[in-house]
Design brief:
Layout lengths: L3 E2 H9 L3 H9 L3 E3 L2 E2 L6 E2 L6 E3 L2 E2 L7 E6 L3 E2 L8 E2 L5 H6 L1 H6 L1 E3 L7 E7 L2 H8 L7 E7 L5 H13 L2 E2 L8 E2 L4 E6 L2 E6 L6 H7 L5 E9 L2 E2 L9 E3 L2 H8 L2
Parallel strand pairs: 8-9, 11-17
Antiparallel strand pairs: 1-4, 2-3, 2-5, 5-6, 7-11, 7-19, 10-11, 12-16, 12-17, 13-14, 15-16, 17-18
Bound molecules: uracil.
Uracil (URA) binds next to α7.
């Protein structure tokens, strides 16, 4: 079940400041399901709970949650001088609802030359929940490699990734040791890799640390949510409630 702090709900849906939200609660002006709530940090369920401020119902603003099958060649930033952006693939939505479009952001990012599952939302709480380190929502990638790896070395990769592998500094990225990652070989040069973080170029850097090179990279799952393979590259659709729950029930 997706819960939210009462003060955050009020800020988001009453468009008031955090201080006013807190004051409404402290002055006993806020009712949750018919009872005065005195704790502004109380967790509420925005979809099911009824929230009143000064006896007026606060409507839960409807958010947009999307999955896209991101094609190669698009960057995940809102503006770019040199590349096409994933937001250009959402033009239909922009024309239908400019206000909501402006609040839409990607949940995490994929590199320009990575394809696959990319999520968007207008709901910052939802996005923070998914990207927050403590929630440990894993990401799974299908990987193809330049160099084939024989059975003996496949085991070596698997063990190294399972232990956590040291990645040296690279351009924008600091050095770090990855959390344990799970590697399943499909063939001598393809595998599925599940990682716990989402650091800059992480998957590519992990294979580079094994002296190999990723030639194709596709995100196939975030937590228990799989990419809908029936989505054509560049297409998107709304997430169902079940799919949203899959993500937040990790
Ligand atoms: N790891 C990468 O190297 N690139 C991505 O786009 C995602 C994970």
């Amino acid at each position: 079940m997706f819960t939210q702090r009462l003060d955050n709900f009020l800020v988001q849906n009453k468009f008031c400041s955090k201080r006013s939200a807190k004051n409404f609660v402290l002055k006993n002006k806020v009712c949750v399901n018919g009872t005065i709530e005195k704790n502004y940090k109380a967790k509420i369920n925005p979809e099911h709970d009824e929230i009143f401020v000064n006896e007026k119902k606060v409507e839960n603003q409807k958010h947009i949650y999307l999955m896209m099958n991101k094609p190669i060649g698009y960057v995940c930033s809102t503006v770019s001088d040199r590349s096409k952006t994933v937001y250009e693939l959402l033009e239909n939505l922009k024309n239908k609802n400019q206000n909501k479009f402006e609040k839409l952001h990607t949940i995490g990012r994929l590199d320009k030359d990575t394809e696959g599952l990319l999520l968007f939302a207008t709901d910052g709480n939802f996005s923070n929940f998914i990207t927050r380190k403590e929630n440990q929502i894993k990401k799974t990638y299908y990987v193809e490699l330049e160099n084939s790896v024989d059975k003996k070395n496949q085991l070596l990769y698997k063990e190294k990734f399972e232990k956590g592998i040291f990645l040296p500094e690279e351009k924008k990225a600091k050095s770090f040791t990855t959390l344990p990652a799970k590697l399943n070989w499909i063939s001598e040069n393809s595998c599925n890799l599940t990682i716990q973080e989402g650091k800059f170029h992480q998957v590519r850097r992990m294979f580079l640390a094994m002296n190999n090179k990723v030639s194709f990279l596709k995100r196939v799952a975030i937590g228990k949510l799989n990419l809908d393979e029936s989505l054509q590259k560049g297409n998107y659709r709304k997430l169902t409630d079940e799919e949203k729950n899959l993500l937040i029930q990790e």
